[in-house]
Amino acid sequence: MAKLKRRLSEKEEFEIMRMVLDKFLWLGFGVMSFGLYKSLVYSFKSGVWFIGAGAIILFIFAWFVVREFEFAR
Predict the structure, then answer these.
(1) In sequence order, what are the residues at sequence separation of 6 or more whose Cβ sits closer than 8 angstroms to the Cβ of residue 64?
(2) How does the average pLDDT of the chain come out, rounded?
(3) What is the model's pTM?
(4) Hey, how many other C-beta atoms are within 10 angstroms of the C-beta on 1?
(5) d(Cα 50, Cα 67) in Å, to the nearest integer?
(6) Phi/psi zone of residue 72: left (φ > 0), alpha (ψ -120 to 50 degrees), beta?
């Protein structure tokens, strides 16, 4: 017997997406902050990799938001 799936309203879907995307923002910011800490305390070369990784995470986040949501023009 097939199980019926519940459909979400647009507001519910947006709230779930907002919670998930908020975690990506915190993750990217945290990785970049850790990279800044490492570059200040140890050496610039050791922290730049973390700063780059955080920037990539934030870039993927921005790409996903632009692709997923329709913006009114």
Answers:
(1) 21, 24
(2) 83
(3) 0.68
(4) 3
(5) 26
(6) beta
- For each successive 10 residues of the chain (73 residues), what is the average pLDDT? 73 81 86 92 89 90 76 52
Q: Which amino acid is at 17?
A: M
20 SS3 class: helix
Residue 35 CB neighbours (<10 A): 21
Q: Tokens 């507001």 appear where?
A: 11
Q: At what angle do helices 10-41 and 44-68 cross, to 10 degrees?
A: 170
Task: Please name the residues in contact with 46: beta carbons below 8 A apart, sequence gap of 6 or more.
Answer: 38, 39
Helix (H, G, I), strand (E, B) or coil at 42: coil
